[in-house]
Every structure is written in structure tokens, then in C-alpha cells.
């Protein structure tokens, strides 16, 4: 198989889809790997590293897309890449279709096979590729939130950890999944007072068991959230419904309950955000203010720490890439339920129920494209 890795063109997306170690293994198994020139530079990998591993360095992304049977990326194709995707080409990356109507229709029109990192799912409902990036984003949410609480960038002027004689800052985390737990670890480590809310009592029990006593758990309800946002300095949105658009947890009218300079970091922005006033931002222009509340809604937070993020991501993606390359997508997905759950669009048809429901599109069960009568 010919595997292509184009350079990421999303604003300040510095990660890369394959490391030289992955290239070496694929080439050893008889596959051909095309790397767009300087794709790995920001992650610490030179063209020479890829060539030494057996890759062919390609000057343009257009050629990589044009020659590859499988495209391995990090983030979803940008608008100028839509026309490069072609019928029956396999694209393996983060898509987050439910928050991208235009992307969804473009990939349907292309006829490509879209296998999304974020919906690759184990039988226990865990998301093995999303987890490492959620770990990075959760930790970064506190790192960035602490920065934007500083007065020169329009925050409240609060030091999260406080100092002797001054109470620490207060952090509210909405969602006790991977992002929420990692955010709570970072915030509590800085000495902040942390409240984490969720509708899943078992997750709250888990948080209560593993985190220090100054991390307080509470059941998530509109009533509780309305009370909490009045006196918390940093609010982290960490809500996830796999493959679907996030529910809105904080509405615009609730902003008036917050103190001016409060910071919101909505990590859920990739799936539409859980804050009504959330809109996607970039590392270049990461924040905006609504009603005196500072919003940080960067859609590719881990792209700011590409060395860490690329290695963490490819540790998870590479075993799947190997299966797809060795077997082809149909056989690999039949053999591996986790990959099967990653399929979102095939030959113009939406095969992931939540994506179809988001845009009121026809849903076609994935088994109709495979050599099986079993429904998944």
C-alpha cells in the first residue's frame, strides 16, 4: 500500500501523522511511504530522519494526496484539501464531523473512506486514540487558563495557587472524563481549589478516590452550575459525547452571573463546544471576550506542544495504521471492532449514526459495505 503523510496546514498545527519509527516499520513490511517535505520539522523530525527510515520525500501535498492509497493526518482536511480527497481513498485522522457540516458534505462528495480517530472505540467504550490527546488538552487547559487569568491579558488577575495569606483561585471543571481528570490533576497540583461536576456518579467516585481532598465533586445540574459559576475564576468545559455534537451546558445568559475577567477554556470546541458562546479559535488568535468573560476555544490545543503530542498520538495510532496497511480497510475493520467503530463515511454514505443525526442525513449501516450480514 502507498501511505501518504501531507503536511498539516491548519493554523499552528505542528503535529505530524507518522514518526520515522513508524515509517521504518511500514517500509519493512513492504509498504511505500510518502512524506511531504518538512512535515515533521515542528515535531523534531527532519527530512533526513524520514529518508533514513525509508520514506520518499515529496515536495507538495497535492502529489502526496494524488498518489497515496491511505492518507494519515492529524487534523481534518482543510477547505483547500477537500478537492484532493478522491473516491475509495482511505483517510485516517481526527474529523469531528458533527461540528463541521461543510467538511461532512465535502467528504461525502469525494467518495473517500473516512475513518475518524475520535470514534475508534474499544468494547469497554473507551476511546484509545482520543485519550492521549485528551490528556494533553486537559493539562493544557489549566496551563492556558492560568496564563489568561493574568490582568495584562484581561483576566481577573488571580494566581491559581494563591500565596500565604491569600486564598487560591477556584477552578470549575465540567465533565469528569479524561480531559476533566487531567485538568483537575494539574489545577490541584498548582494548589487551586477545584470543583469537578458530572452526571456520572461512578466517575465522580473515581475522582474522589484518586485526587486530593481539595478537589470537590458535585453532580452536574443547571441549578448547581449556575451557583458555581458565580465564584469560580477558571471554568473548563470538558464534555464529550462520542461522535456527536456536545450539549450546551453554559448558556449566554449565564455569563452575566460570572465575575468580569473569569476565564472559560472550552476543550469541547472540537465537537461544537459545551458553552453557547464558544466559537473556534486558533493558536494565533486564541481568545475573545463576551460580556466581560474571556473565552479560550482553540480547536487543536495539543498542536502547541507537538513533540509531546506527536509521540503520544502515534503511540496510539500506529498499531491501527499497520493493520489498515497490511490488510486494507475492509479486512482490518472486520477483524478489529475498534477500527470498525472509527468508520464515519464510506463512498458518499454516512455510516456513523450520531453524525447522520446531527445533520439529518441518511444513515447507512456500516455492515452493508463489508462482507458480512452482521449489524454493528
Helix content range = 25-40%
Q: Major sheet: size, sense and barrel closure?
A: 8 strands, mixed
* Count of individual beta strands: 15
Structural class of the secondary elements? alpha/beta
Mean pLDDT: 96
- The Cα radius of gyration reads 21 Å
In DSSP terms, counting alpha (H) and pi (I) runs of 4 or more, how many helices? 12
Overall shape: it is globular
Q: Can you describe what's shown?
A:
By secondary structure, the chain is α/β, with parallel strands linked by helices. 33% of the residues lie in helices and 16% in strands. The chain is built from twelve helices and 15 strands. The strands form two sheets. It has an eight-stranded mixed sheet, with helices on both faces. Strands 9-8-7-10-11-13-12 form a seven-stranded mixed sheet, with helices on both faces. β8 (193-198), α7 and β9 form a beta-alpha-beta unit. The longest helix is centred in the last third of the chain and has 22 residues, at 306-327. The chain starts with a strand and ends in a 17-residue tail after the last helix.
Amino acid at each position: 500500500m502507498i501511505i501518504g503523510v501531507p503536511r498539516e496546514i491548519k493554523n499552528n498545527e505542528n503535529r505530524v501523522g507518522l514518526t520515522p519509527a513508524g515509517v521504518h516499520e511500514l517500509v519493512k513490511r513492504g509498504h511505500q511511504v510518502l512524506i511531504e517535505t518538512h512535515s515533521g520539522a515542528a515535531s523534531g523530525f527532519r527530512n533526513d530522519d524520514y529518508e533514513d527510515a525509508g520514506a520518499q520525500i515529496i515536495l507538495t501535498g497535492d502529489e502526496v494526496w494524488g498518489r497515496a492509497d491511505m492518507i494519515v493526518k492529524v487534523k481534518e482536511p482543510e477547505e483547500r484539501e477537500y478537492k484532493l480527497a478522491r473516491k475509495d481513498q482511505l483517510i485516517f485522522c481526527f474529523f469531528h464531523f458533527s461540528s463541521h457540516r461543510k467538511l461532512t458534505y465535502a467528504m461525502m462528495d469525494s467518495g473517500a473512506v473516512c475513518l475518524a480517530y475520535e470514534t475508534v472505540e474499544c468494547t469497554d467504550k473507551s476511546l484509545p486514540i482520543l485519550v492521549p490527546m485528551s490528556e494533553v488538552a486537559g493539562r493544557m487547559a489549566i496551563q492556558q487558563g492560568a496564563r489568561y487569568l493574568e490582568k495584562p491579558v484581561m483576566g481577573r488577575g488571580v494566581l491559581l495557587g494563591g500565596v500565604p495569606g491569600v486564598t487560591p483561585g477556584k477552578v470549575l471543571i465540567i465533565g469528569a472524563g479524561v480531559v476533566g481528570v487531567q485538568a483537575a490533576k494539574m489545577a490541584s497540583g498548582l494548589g487551586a481549589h477545584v470543583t469537578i461536576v458530572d452526571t456520572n456518579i461512578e466517575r465522580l467516585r473515581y475522582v474522589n478516590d484518586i485526587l486530593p481532598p481539595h478537589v470537590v465533586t458535585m453532580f452536574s445540574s443547571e441549578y448547581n452550575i449556575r451557583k458555581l459559576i458565580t465564584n469560580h475564576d477558571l471554568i473548563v468545559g470538558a464534555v464529550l459525547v462520542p461522535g456527536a455534537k456536545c450539549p450546551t451546558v453554559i448558556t449566554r445568559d449565564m455569563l452575566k452571573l460570572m465575575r468580569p475577567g473569569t476565564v472559560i477554556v472550552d476543550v469541547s470546541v472540537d465537537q461544537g463546544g459545551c458553552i453557547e458562546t464558544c466559537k473556534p479559535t486558533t493558536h494565533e488568535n486564541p481568545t475573545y471576550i463576551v460580556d466581560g468573560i474571556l473565552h479560550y476555544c482553540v480547536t487543536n490545543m495539543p498542536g502547541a506542544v507537538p513533540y509531546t503530542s506527536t509521540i503520544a498520538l502515534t503511540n496510539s495510532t500506529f498499531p491501527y495504521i499497520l493493520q489498515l496497511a497490511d490488510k486494507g480497510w475492509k479486512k482490518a475493520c472486520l477483524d478489529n471492532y475498534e477500527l470498525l467503530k472509527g468508520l464515519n463515511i464510506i463512498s458518499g454514505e454516512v455510516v456513523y449514526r450520531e453524525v447522520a443525526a446531527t445533520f439529518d442525513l441518511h444513515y447507512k449501516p456500516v455492515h452493508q459495505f463489508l462482507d458480512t450480514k452482521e449489524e454493528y
